[in-house]
Amino acid sequence: MSDVASLADGQWQWSGWLSPKGRVQALFALLRTGPESIWLLLPDGDAGALKAAMERFVFRSKVKLRVPGELSLCGSFTAPGAASGAMAATDAGGRVELDLGDGTSPRTLRICPGCSAPADSAALARWRAFDLVHGLPRPGPDGLEAWTPQQLSLDRLHAYSVRKGCYPGQEIVARTHFLGQAKRGLGLFAADSAPAVEAQVMEGERAIGTVASAAAAAGEADGHAALVLAVLPLQRPADAPGLAVDGMPLVPLPLRDGLAR
């Protein structure tokens, strides 16, 4: 759903794959590693299923899709050595480095053949919380099929295009954009525990939204155990009742900038 042709070699952007009805099937980072090679880095979901869905649109083009089993990913909350912003960097050993920080808090992802590091559950929770507070939904295996890119506020990440050529769901995305019909978007909240994806967000006795993603706060919400991204009406009265999910109050938090590419 993003403009792949605009990427230079070594550049990356957020992107996604939509259903014909414009619902988000997958979110990923899309990296052009060379003139004829593009990587999709999928943080959640089934890579094999995404490959199969995309193969239906390979016609006479000489395109080959595969899920590489020889590559490993390692993340760290340190500044990249050479990558910066949307430009990746590749060293002499073929290790690829991406800058996933926000310009203030550093974060680096490295992709390499055969590299390994011990799994760290606390670091993984912190990584996921970082994504949520910057407006990148992380639904895990639950998926995002209920929502359009606009409802997930993916314009904040520059993750979709309304002007490139056709792609599945493009008509819905473009119509919503040009007719100004986007009435819902993401809100970030702190909560005492993580609700299930697609749990209803209540305003008093009325359901007004849906949980799109939730995770342990990992230090990102003082005094609360969880972070919640929910799809809600963009406009609410100033005197509207507070929000809750499963009877648990939601505390509004500002979405942070800096993760767009």
From TrEMBL:
NCBIfam families: ygfZ_signature. This is Folate-binding protein YgfZ. The lineage of its organism: Bacteria, Pseudomonadati, Pseudomonadota, Gammaproteobacteria, Lysobacterales.
